[in-house]
Amino acid sequence: MTTHTDTVDPTQELAVFLRARRERLDPGALGLPSRRQARRTPGLRREEVAELAGVSVDYVVRLEQGRGLRPSADVLEALARALRLSPVERGYLFDLAQQRLRTADEPATTAPPPLARLVADLSPLPAMLVNHRYDILAWNHEVTRLFLDFATLPPARRNAMWLCLMHPEVREFYADRERVVREGVAHLRAAWATHPEDRALTGLIAEFTARDEEFARRWNEREIKVNGRGHKVLRHPEVGEIAMDFETLIPLEDPEQRLLIYRAADEESQSALARLCAR
């Protein structure tokens, strides 16, 4: 039994957590063969967890006894699968073991329906949903009037950084383009370190480096930054300059995605945005 203390002992909490998650599982639901001998404790036996995870029984015993082991990321992944941990529980397991949580092998390329509906419901605020590499997954009418209609682009070009660097119209959109590019490159470098397995992201970075001298120079500076909020001034071809503030939110259920919400920074910009969206 654990008692409340002012500090957490990660090793002991890891031991208790693994035992608790093992004991809650139904062997029959996992397709494990029935045993002639009656089970003395609920859930799976340590032997069964060891077999499912591909580790030794002694290793599971020592983990559950809190004997100072620090399992590797591979072992934690195997234990998470064996114990049928939810994404939140998996993150908790990695935190307790002081290991870096691995990201999904296949980054999201489509918006979850609840988030797509949320983007639409945020009207009249311009909003869009992007993944870690700036792929645009969902958007509402207002944001298309502010920037451009993403539906007219091939899916492979619905990427905010590609538009900023390569699109002939969007390239000239930002009053402070140098800062926008610098911050975008710093975000992509952080995303690249977190998602080393993402070949699509690696391909984008290679394309940008080869085709855009400014990107290549900024990339070699190795600046790291992820903006949660900020300010942009847009040179809109229809209504002139619009000053916009933006906020970036991360959904708990989809932490690899980013919800970008824009708001006019002043009354003049609000009036220009209203005229733009009414057309």
Question: In a few lines, what is going on in this structure?
Answer:
This protein is of the alpha+beta class.
Description of the structure:
Helix 2 (46-53) packs across helix 4 and helix 4 (73-82) runs antiparallel to helix 5 (87-96). This protein is 44% helix and 13% strand. The chain is elongated. It has 2 domains: 10-96, Orthogonal Bundle (434 Repressor (Amino-terminal Domain)), CATH 1.10.260; 113-278, Beta-Lactamase. It has a 5-stranded antiparallel sheet. The chain has 12 helices and 5 strands. A hairpin with a 3-residue loop joins strand 3 and strand 4. With 279 residues, it is an alpha+beta fold. The longest helix has 18 residues, at 177-194.
Order of helices and strands: HHHHHHEEHHHHHEEEH
**Major sheet: size, sense and barrel closure?**
5 strands, antiparallel
- Compute the CA-based radius of gyration: 24 Å
Beta-strand share of residues: 5-15%
Classified by CATH, the class of the largest domain is: Alpha Beta
Pairing-aware structural class of the strands and helices?
alpha+beta
The count of domains is 2
How many DSSP-defined strands? 5
| CATH-assigned fold name of the largest domain | Beta-Lactamase
Pfam families: HTH_31 (PF13560), MLTR_LBD (PF17765)
InterPro entries: Cro/C1-type_HTH (IPR001387), Lambda_DNA-bd_dom_sf (IPR010982), MLTR_LBD (IPR041413)
Domain HTH cro/C1-type: 36-90
Protein name: XRE family transcriptional regulator
